[in-house]
Amino acid sequence: MLRKLGKIQDLLLLIFKISLPLSIVLYVLRGLGFLGFVSGGVLSFCILISIFSLLGFFLVKTYI
Prior knowledge:
Blueprint: H1 2-32, H2 40-63
Helix pairs in contact: 1-2
Keywords: Membrane, Transmembrane, Transmembrane helix
Transmembrane segments: 12-29, 35-60
């Protein structure tokens, strides 16, 4: 059981490490006008994914 939780923890941390910088870069590029076609919903979705993956990581980390 602990191995599965460890794998879930690693996956959640990886999702957080990828999605937060990606959403920041997309937000900056959209603000500068390079990615004007990207909607705000896509950026909000990336930010929400990173927040929920971080919360999930902390929950798994707490219960291991």
